[in-house]
């Protein structure tokens, strides 16, 4: 079986031998940065921060183009069909490159076909609990779930989302049963948690923690293997008895299939320069995202580590594929 990472590496190497336009003088005109999410959201904000910084390094404008919908497949398929000349790139997520392959019977793009540019960062989720329960630790949640006559309810961004899969993962590892209640994003789920109409919710740091700071909900754990540097007070789920637990949202830059290696190298250098800029790093951290090193190798490792976990979770949850 050929792993996604191996295929991505091979694609990058082959790009260097492709008889396409040389990167000499690249870039000579603006670059389109496709983001498969709507304007105004967290991912759009991340794209614009990177576009501004990378544009200064490259000496050209990066124009953010929002092509949202269908679990990132609209934006991803558009970018996959673009001419591989470095003038269209994609801000991809774990949904784009990993989860969608297990949710859809047929994707309009090949998640293993993109040419990697580099890893941007990883954004963990936090496990929030309704204030009425007064849970202090994950152990309190697990005990309550095992003792309750009816399953505790857990909200999510929607079926098949990272929030839903985190709930399934917790059930597996802790040996508990939870009642999944899907919503259309955090804006639908958070009010129900605040009101006490649902018991638990895995939410992104940027939207969930302000509610914790305002005293409206409680937090008992974070889904990454390491504590978030900007919120070191939140213990990981792993250190609370489940060391295998590591499920996050992550962000990366990729180019269309067969983009030449010299072009992606130029883009990678601009991405790394952005991630090394103190002001850019601080803005990304404020979004609840830990900046990565910008390398394509980090992306490849993330894909290959996550694929078997996500495949098993999707099957266990019996999520109906599209």
TrEMBL record:
Alphabetized UniProt keyword annotations: Signal
Membrane spanning residue stretches: none
UniProt-listed Pfam families: TctC (PF03401)
Secreted is among the record's keywords: no
Keyword Magnesium assigned: no
Signal peptide positions (record): 1-23
InterPro entries given in the database record: BUG, Bug_dom1
Family: Belongs to the UPF0065 (bug) family.
Protein's name in the database: Tripartite tricarboxylate transporter substrate binding protein
Organism of provenance: Allopusillimonas soli
